[in-house]
Structures are given as structure tokens and as C-alpha cells.
Amino acid sequence: MKAVVTNAKATGCLELGEVAEPQADSNEAVIAVSAFSLNRGELRRAEAAPDGTQIGWDLTGVVRNTARDGSGPPEGARVVGFSRRMQGWAQFVALPTADFAVIPDAVSDSDAATLPVAGLTALYALERCERLLGSKILVTGASGGVGYFACQLARLMGAQVTAQLRRPDFADMVRATGVDDVVISPDGSGFGAHGKFRGIIDGVGGQVLSRLLSRLDERGRAILYGVSGGPETTLAVRELMSTGDGRIEGFHLYRESEIESAAKGLDRLLLLLADQRLTTHIPVTGSWETIGETAARLIGRDFAGKAVLTI
Ligand SMILES: NC(=O)c1ccc[n+]([C@@H]2O[C@H](COP(=O)([O-])OP(=O)(O)OC[C@H]3O[C@@H](n4cnc5c(N)ncnc54)[C@H](OP(=O)(O)O)[C@@H]3O)[C@@H](O)[C@H]2O)c1
């Protein structure tokens, strides 16, 4: 079958290649893939992987063979899933039935394809913060795949949301999520007038995080899920001490989706999409034959939100 594979010499380090069809374990269904969305994290991993490695977390498709243990939806069901083995960008993928969910009729493949990594990360990161109703929450990298969903989900959870982004050209798209405040700040400065935050949902790291940690409220939680702006940060220890019980927590979706299966989390997000309480932002679509250029555009931050390619 055809699949997206790594090639260090190709544009975006990715190209279409030939690989063996997947062998399903007894708890896995085989899905004929229709579309997928790209994430920064998997593209970074692809850059470091040996040539010929398969890639891809997020995918939508149709169940071709049900799981032998009888779990999961029937053949022909339209589904969205998370390939932990990163083999989702292929004509066929074998997925444990706990890692995919049925897409409601009201939701398109494109919209559903944006959910697995970005939507689940935003959802579970916010749920690490307690007492969101009426609390102030800061979302960094709000123009990114995760940040865009985090802004909307924090609002739905009843928080007062401040969004940080670095470029004014993406501000309108973030404002349209209904956030209370948008702060354009490439380095994390300029938050003095915005008070302290019960939760900080951070995918940027580096200098931005270093500055924003001083904005953590008493008993606040900073949930660190990404390092788009740099993998190291400086911590103002005195500020953290003065919060009393302020905490900085690492976050990883693989771990979090063992606590609640991806299928259950996706069901929750799909319901919100179907009810139009959650929206997607997909400025880039096309055939999977454009995978190299699309990956290079995402890494170069040529667009905000998500790119979805169809097979
Ligand atoms: N731990 C986990 O389980 C997990 C899960 C999902 C994602 N992640 C990680 O989280 C991060 C964000 O993921 P994503 O998919 O949302 O990425 P994305 O769609 O590429 O968005 C990146 C965001 O970070 C901002 N940004 C990029 N470089 C920056 C810099 N140097 N300074 C300040 N802001 C910068 C971008 O702003 P512009 O729009 O202005 O470019 C954008 O808002 C990545 O590091 C990813 O690997 C981790």
C-alpha cells in the first residue's frame, strides 16, 4: 500500500512510498484512511527518523475489517482515530478500538481529522486545572493547533480566557474563539495588567514561559505540553514560592490517553463539533501528494490552525 514515509532529502523530509499492509492484533480494526491532519510534534520526530519510517498520529477513515475480539464499530463505520504507532498516514492502518471513535453525521472528515492530538491535548491539559468555572486561564501559542482548541474549550468550561500569541496577523482568528483577552507578545512580556492566572496552558516554553510563570496565581497550575519557542526556561523561584501551592506540571498525551481512552475523549469532542460549540480552523487542505510542502509550511509557521490532507 501507499504511505507517507520519511526521506531526509525530500521537501519537508516526507514523501509517499510503498510499505507492507498492517497486520491487526485481535483488539484492532483495520481502517481505510480518508484524511489526516498534521501536527508539529510528529513532523519534528520525522526529521530525526531513519529514511522509510512511517508517520502520522491523526486520521479519519472507514472501518474495513472489524477487530477479531468483537469490540468497536461495524464495517463501514466512519471513524476518527489516534495512531500511537505513528502509522496513520497510509491507505490502511490497524488501530486498537480504544483509540478511535465514530464520527457523527453532522461532522465532516476534515473537521474530525483535526481532533486527535490537538483536541485531546487541549482537553486533557485543561482538565488538569481544577475549579475552572469563573477562573482566569492563560493559553499560550493560541494560534497553534492545540492553542486554538484550548481557547474554545476553556471558555466552554466557564473560564475567563486570556490568549497569548506572537503575531498580530493571527489575532482575529483567535478573537473569533470568543476569548476575553488577546495579548500579542512574542516574548511573554506585557501581562502585568492582566492579573494572575489559575491555570496556564503552555505549548511555547522558552522565554515566554519563563516570564509567564510569574503570573501564576495562588494554588495555580501551569500545564506544560510543548516547547515550540524553546526547550529550556528560567524559573523565578521566589514568585513560585509566594503562590503557596502553585505547581508546574508536565503533560504528555500518550500518558493522559491511558487515563481516559482516546475513543472516549474523541467522543466528547465530536459531540461539541456536532453541536457547533467547538469550531475548527483549517486554512490548508489538499491531496496527500502535497505532504512534503504542507509539512514544510507548518514547520515554517506559514499558517495558523490546522492543515488537513485527503487520500
Ligand atoms: N506533550 C504532548 O503530548 C503534546 C501534544 C501536542 C503538542 N505538543 C507540542 O506542543 C507544541 C505546540 O503544538 P501545536 O501542534 O499546537 O503546534 P503549532 O500548530 O505549530 O503551533 C505552535 C504555536 O506556537 C507558537 N510559536 C511557535 N514558535 C514560537 C516562538 N519561537 N515563540 C513564540 N511562539 C511560538 C506559534 O505561533 P505563530 O502562530 O505565531 O507561529 C503557534 O501559536 C509543539 O511543541 C508540539 O510538539 C505536545
Structural notes for this entry:
- The protein has 311 residues and is α/β, with parallel strands linked by helices.
- The protein folds into 2 domains: 2-117 and 260-310, Medium-chain alcohol dehydrogenases, catalytic domain (Quinone Oxidoreductase, Chain A, domain 1), CATH 3.90.180.10; 129-250, NAD(P)-binding Rossmann-like Domain (Rossmann fold).
- It is built from 10 helices and 15 strands.
- It has helices at residues 40-48, 109-113, 115-127, 145-156, 171-175, 206-212, 237-242, 253-259, 262-274, 291-299, and strands spanning 2-6, 14-18, 28-37, 58-65, 78-82, 92-96, 100-102, 136-139, 160-165, 181-184, 197-202, 216-224, 247-250, 284-287, 307-310.
- Strands 3, 4, 5, 6, 7, 14 and 15 form a 7-stranded mixed sheet that branches. It has a 6-stranded parallel sheet with strand order 10-9-8-11-12-13.
- α5 (171-175) links the parallel β9 and β10.
- The protein is globular and about 55 Å long.
- The mean pLDDT is 97.
- It binds NADP nicotinamide-adenine-dinucleotide phosphate.
- Residues 39-41, 117-118, 121, 141, 143-147, 165-167, 170, 186, 203-204, 208, 225-229, 251-253, 301, 304 line the site of NADP nicotinamide-adenine-dinucleotide phosphate.
Indicate the structural class.
alpha/beta
> How confident is the prediction overall: mean pLDDT?
97
Helix content: 25-40%
Compute the separation of the termini in Å.
12 Å
Summarize the entry for a quick read.
The chain is of the alpha/beta class and 311 residues long. It has two domains: 2-117 and 260-310, Alpha-Beta Complex (Quinone Oxidoreductase, Chain A, domain 1); 129-250, Rossmann fold (3-Layer(aba) Sandwich), CATH 3.40.50. Helix content is 28%, strand content 26%.
